[in-house]
């Protein structure tokens, strides 16, 4: 066949099966076109390439341009099949006098025609062409060649059709399409805008897989987009605001990109804008805040002004959206503003290296208080039917972030809302799977399909724990929480979360938020033990909690890196044991003995004798494991020592058990080996309290202490009570 015949056959693409004309158009009359049917028969019966080309040409004559419908297209496929397009796509030689891509162009045109049928777009014979099609996107050639441009258009139509099938994105990513699209976009050749559109679709559908397969290429695109964004002076900068969130990686964002993005956002948000211009910029800023915290904002005067501007704009937007009646709330924009407010809360409460100056903090706290008031007002209007909506979850999240740092302002409004918050947390706790799905929807609502950076907690209760910890100290809010059943809910939640850390679960893959949540629960329970002891004694849920604490502490104190959680569990258990001392579970059972042995281990290993250069006498120093976290640990340790002291007279078996552990002997030995001047008065008081109660409770303890030079040590440290106790028979 001559090149002229090929060219004539190629007209088929322009008339009937090129990508641009393959969309279903006007259906022909109900009956089939007999001439077309005859030509399709000839196409099916063609014995060689020449006959197939001729038949295709006849089909083109019978079907006018744009006059092909889905059924006709399917009949053409039935006649042609995949074998012929396959040969065209893999052909390396063109007939004499023809461009080398002419056969591949016709093959792509046929494939594009077939791909407009979703069933055919997912066909294995189409999917296995993905690597070949991807190479066409970056192939070099005459940019003005109309046939080559047509082939590129058809290639994008094929790939776009595949992307629209259920498993299509996965096949495209595996076939190297993401890298090819990145290179096509960066080359800014013909069709580069189509490459960007398809990239956006793939990132939206399978962000993690895209980055895993083509991170260097995607980062190159991000650099290009960020630079364009920073330089843009026209409306394109607003379009880029919408695209850029999808191109932020799940890992570290390159510093040069952060600089360009911040500079571009500063220019946009510092101008007078309409809402359609401002909202995408706020959403991009929220995405950066969620991924990078405040690291993307430069230090210094310009950075502090920019952050203050961001938070102020976010607060204004929240108030306008939630206070205006009769207008539909743009939930995605408001949720983005919540993320910016949360950034503001973090910076206002940061003591060191904060981006904000003190007057700026005062001003931002004031505007955020007003915005939080609007959030509370909105939540007060939420009915039962809306409680599972993602936007409600997002609103509870920002309120939780505020209450974690500030409970004194808006106290009346917060107290009025507490019953709703308890019911809401209980509803989501009881439907944990739906709650986790809500957290993903919140992320999608404002940020991106999958978000790097700190995970949005999957339950409302975890969001509220820090605020409730503050509120349980105050009489009014605590009474409301108790009345609404919050303590029982917290006990159930603690036990459920504790299961995640029990043997059989891989604690190394647990997010830090689980352990932090457990610690915060312990703090709330400690508040209740001190301020509402009657509740601990009468509510059965605390008996179950005590049993869990006793069973768990022995293994917990042995685990590396979990000392702070062990301190919380030990101290809480000791304080509860004082209140529940008459419980059968605490009468020397194996569980209670194991718990107190573990508690003694925690309390006794905090300090050691450490030699000092140039001195004959050692000094009392923190153990290596305790030293790095003592600022967070010391209050719990002192409270634990006090609680253990209180348990000794209430549990007759405890003093002999402590003696068998050799704690009192080793404690006296430690004090005798260090300089008294190195032991702080509060440490002396804590040690004396334990030693005195053990000595009073048990004669054998007194004798063991005397043998360990207890009277002499008591005299050196001016422990009058211990000295007097040991002087008695």
Automatic annotation (TrEMBL):
One of its GO terms (biological process) is regulation of neuronal synaptic plasticity. GO terms for cellular component: dendrite. InterPro entries: ARM-type_fold (IPR016024), Neurochondrin (IPR008709). It comes from the Eukaryota. Pfam families: Neurochondrin. Belongs to the neurochondrin family. This is Neurochondrin.
């Amino acid at each position: 066949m001559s090149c002229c015949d090929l060219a004539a056959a190629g007209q088929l693409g322009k008339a009937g099966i090129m990508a641009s004309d393959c969309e279903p158009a006007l259906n022909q009359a109900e009956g089939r076109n007999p001439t077309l049917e005859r030509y399709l028969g000839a196409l099916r019966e063609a014995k060689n390439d020449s006959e197939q080309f001729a038949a295709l040409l006849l089909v083109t004559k019978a079907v006018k341009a744009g006059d092909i419908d889905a059924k006709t297209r399917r009949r053409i496929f039935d006649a042609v099949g995949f074998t012929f397009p396959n040969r065209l796509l893999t052909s390396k030689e063109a007939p004499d006098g023809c461009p080398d891509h002419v056969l591949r162009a016709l093959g792509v045109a046929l494939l594009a025609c077939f791909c407009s049928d979703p069933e055919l777009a997912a066909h294995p014979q189409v999917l296995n062409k993905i690597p070949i099609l991807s190479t066409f996107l970056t192939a070099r050639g005459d940019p003005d060649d109309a046939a080559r441009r047509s082939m590129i258009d058809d290639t994008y139509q094929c790939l776009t059709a595949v992307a629209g099938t259920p498993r299509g994105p996965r096949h495209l990513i595996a076939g190297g399409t993401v890298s090819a699209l990145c290179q096509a976009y960066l080359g800014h050749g013909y069709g580069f805008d189509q490459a960007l559109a398809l990239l956006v679709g793939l990132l939206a559908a399978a962000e993690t897989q895209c980055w895993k397969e083509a991170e260097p290429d995607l980062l190159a695109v991000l650099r290009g987009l960020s630079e364009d964004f920073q330089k843009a002076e026209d409306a394109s900068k607003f379009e880029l605001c919408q695209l850029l969130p999808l191109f932020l990686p799940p890992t570290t964002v390159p510093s040069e990109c952060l600089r360009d993005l911040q500079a571009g956002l500063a220019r946009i948000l510092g101008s007078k804008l309409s809402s359609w211009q401002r909202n995408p910029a706020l959403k991009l800023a929220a995405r950066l805040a969620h991924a990078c915290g405040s690291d993307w904002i430069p230090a210094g005067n310009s950075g502090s002004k920019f952050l203050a501007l961001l938070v102020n704009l976010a607060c204004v937007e929240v108030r306008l959206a939630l206070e205006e009646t009769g207008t539909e709330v743009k939930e995605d924009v408001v949720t983005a503003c919540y993320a910016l407010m949360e950034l503001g809360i973090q910076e206002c409460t940061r003591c060191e290296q904060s981006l904000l100056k003190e007057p700026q903090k005062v001003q931002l706290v004031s505007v955020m208080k007003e915005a939080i008031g609007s959030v509370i007002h909105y939540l007060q209007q939420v009915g039962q039917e809306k409680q599972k909506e993602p936007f409600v979850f997002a609103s509870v999240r920002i309120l939780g972030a505020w209450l974690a740092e500030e409970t004194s302002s808006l106290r009346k409004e917060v107290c009025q809302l507490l019953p709703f918050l308890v019911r809401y947390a209980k509803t989501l706790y009881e439907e944990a799977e739906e709650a986790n799905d809500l957290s993903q929807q919140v992320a999608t609502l404002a940020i991106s399909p999958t978000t790097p950076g700190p995970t949005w907690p999957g339950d409302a209760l975890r969001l509220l724990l820090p605020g409730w910890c503050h509120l349980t100290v105050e009489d009014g809010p605590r009474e409301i929480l108790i009345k609404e059943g919050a303590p029982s809910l917290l006990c159930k939640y603690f036990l459920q979360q504790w299961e995640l850390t029990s043997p059989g679960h891989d604690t190394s893959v647990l997010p830090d938020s689980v352990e932090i949540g457990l610690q915060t629960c312990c703090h709330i329970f400690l508040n209740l033990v001190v301020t509402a002891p009657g509740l601990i004694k009468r509510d059965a849920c605390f008996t179950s909690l005590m049993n869990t604490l006793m069973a768990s502490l022995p293994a917990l104190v042995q685990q590396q890196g979990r000392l702070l959680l062990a301190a919380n569990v030990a101290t809480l258990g000791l304080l509860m044991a004082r209140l529940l001392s008459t419980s059968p579970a605490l009468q020397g059972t194996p569980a209670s003995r194991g718990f107190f042995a573990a508690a003694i281990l925690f309390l006794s290993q905090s300090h050691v004798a450490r030699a000092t250069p140039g001195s004959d006498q050692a000094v009392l120093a923190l153990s290596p494991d305790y030293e790095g976290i003592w600022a967070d640990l010391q209050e719990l340790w002192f409270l634990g020592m006090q609680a253990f002291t209180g348990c000794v007279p209430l549990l007759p078996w405890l003093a002999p058990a402590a003696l068998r552990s050799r704690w009192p002997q080793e404690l006296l030995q430690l004090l005798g080996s260090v300089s008294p001047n190195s032991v702080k008065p509060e440490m002396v008081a804590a040690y004396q309290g334990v030693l005195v109660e053990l000595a009073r409770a048990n004669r054998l303890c007194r004798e063991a202490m005397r043998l360990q030079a207890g009277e002499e040590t008591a005299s050196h440290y001016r422990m009058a009570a211990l000295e007097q106790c040991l002087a008695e028979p």
